[in-house]
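hiii so my PI (J.) wants the whole complex modelled not just the main chain, which honestly fair. so below is everything: two entries, each one labled with what it is. i double checked the lines twice but i was tired so who knows lol
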Amino acid sequence: MSVPSAGDADHGAALVAAVQEALARKTPLQIRGGNSKAFYGRLPAGAPLSVANHRGILHYEPSELVMTARGGTRLAEIEAALDAHHQMLAFEPPHFGPGATLGGAIACGLSGPRRPYAGAVRDFVLGAKIINGRGEILKFGGEVMKNVAGFDAARLMAGALGTLGVLLEVSLKVVPKPLYEITLTRSCGAQQALETMTALACRPLPLSAACFSDDTLYLRLSGSESGVRAAQKKIGGDPLAGQETFWRQVREHTHDFFRGGTLLWRLSLPPAAPLLQLPGLLFIDWGGVQRWLRNPLPADVIRATAAKLGGYATLFRGGEHTGSVFHPLPPGLLALHKRLKNVFDPQGIFNPGRLYAEL
Amino acid sequence: MPKSVTAALTPELNALVMALHHILPPEAVLAGAEESRPYECDGLTAYRNLPGVVCLPDSIAQAQQILRLCTQMQVPVVARGAGTGLSGGALPLRHGVLVSLAKFTRLLEIDPDNRVARVECGVRNLAISEAAAPYGLYYAPDPSSQIACTIGGNVAENSGGVHCLKYGLTVHNVLGLKLLTMDGELLELGGNTLDAPGYDLLALLNGSEGLLGVIVEVTVKLLPKPERAQVVLAAFDSVAQAGAAVTEIIGAGIIPAGLEMMDNLALRAAEDYTRAGYPVDAAALLLCELDGANEEVSELIFQVRELLLQTGAREVRTALDEAERLKFWAGRKAAFPAVGRLAPDYYCMDGTIPRRRLPAVLTRIAELSRHYDLRVANVFHAGDGNLHPLILYDANRPGELERAEAFGAKILELCLEVGGTITGEHGVGVEKLNQMCLQFTGAELTQFHEIKYAFDPKGLLNPGKAVPTLQRCAEFGAMHVHHGKLPFPELERF
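here's the output for the full assembly
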């Protein structure tokens, strides 16, 4: 089933021509979708290459749990089409702006509150059509759930920040919306919240989100009504009115915690890692894995703290974004990254320096 | 001192064996034909090669030294786990080293708070769940060989299992890896977190069939064991009806933990073998397992029963207790060996198709079965479209193996025609190289070769597997215009 909409257009040939011209002139390109996540990563460089008009849902088969759409398709359009069939993107990608596109969501590799329980962006990528750094159109993966033919280069595009190619089309696994959801809250301190999250995650409960902020623990349960109700009885807490708004605010960073000018750090840690011995404001999401931190401490202090706990730190918002934004790679891995970048984009024209200065 | 350097070894291999003895104890280097015979094939026994030398390192340091030596001497290396693979991915090379990782069997850590297990690559799949069981946790992917296959091999093949519709493949359940590059460098990817900075190299390594690195350690995600699992068995008078039932269940927003289909030949064989209680006159049998909270399972079982009856199931049975649940599954899990009893040999295919195309694909397979005059039984991971036709043949009858292979190739091409893929979970190995030429363009295959080059510039890790050369594809293309009649039938074709 395809779902044509007014804005649909195939600009694949024009995009290939633009890449070939950039190759001929040796001018780098900054690939742009809805420009909603320009803040993310190191500063974009190069002439803008807009994918925003290359849009349209090409194929959506609700009973197969698969959708294929062009890179410039608006996330909002995709979510509306899925919603009409009671389906959704399980990784709950943040939009960070009305123009957010599918290609941008895949390239940035960001996932929302459901991530620890449902999976990340990369877990739902089934296939991708890209333009590589030779101006060739390549198709990897496909539209089926199980596919081990060839290296999984489609999944590799998730989180690569466009440094390996231009995303023309992406095929995703989609999932049914839960039949019933409830969010339970309880007052507690950060330490107790972490302990509760860990204890609950070891039990067979239909958890679909767990975060902590302002001395409140928020737990979302999803599933059949009877299953959710049974779990509610087991864990207790007060039902939260307006839960959809709350989780949207967490996902979109419109929650109060994310307002203001202090640097915003994202720490990715083992879920049971102890509380950070760092000052500043803290928001715990993903059941302990994703910890947002607002403080102006030097990057190396924050990175060292994350590394000591077995994790990584990203400068998410604020600051200059000219230095290292993502956690530095050890030399062996960085060398491998450079070789991989080189085989996809030998002239280095795609989003140079956006992920790491060396790529 | 070298224990068994046979005269048959080439001077190059002889020198290699001498050097290996400086790295490994005598019993960890097998160079004679007799000793290395058990390694000549993996689960795809139609392809056999005696390895030049077999090494059994016991530590990362030893494995590093072997790889450095092989790099220095320009000798290709094939890594092997339990040898249960079904596409010849671990087929040895006559002039190469086979590195068996059978001694890497240490369970390094079960961390219940972080819900992870860190294990060496040679740990068996099922052993992880067994070790995690005291904490109420388990490792979800369950390939049917799970009592024997190793986690390292699972990563290399991105193995699936009957529960992957709900719980994902290996790639969805691996959080970290330690791998050795061909020049012996130890790289660590990921760890106990849900994501790591930089490119998603775990995505590339899962399913890389031993071409990119030698995986030595794996950190996997553990999940809480569901409170309850229950299975429903449904019998249908046609495969199309059974297919429609699958669509209805998923369309109703239900994601079963397992959803399996067998055709009549497969279910009869399974019934004869295991006495699972299957209705032997059904055209198709569906097993639908639901898991989760007690109340949720009760609610969904009822709903699934209704949907199955509405779509025309002539019989719907819910397993009354755990014993009956296991009995229902025993038939399905033994389907391959059960079908294996129907003929001296069988050839197991592994394509994925869009589920809605199932009736058309099965009709076409039946036509091909008549054309090649070989019987075929179909076992189907119905939830995710992964089809396993089992072609029955007798290798002792002249021409039957070739007919079985030609039939299998046609099935894979059929999977491509309907928008699927030539391999869902068994890998390309040496078996499906030709079909790779049909699924991918020259530019795409070149990109795969270049990805390998980024990891293994000298091309010494498992060369010749998984990704065909363009030259091979050109030859295969040329062969195709001759209506499938192969020129030079006396030549080996991998």
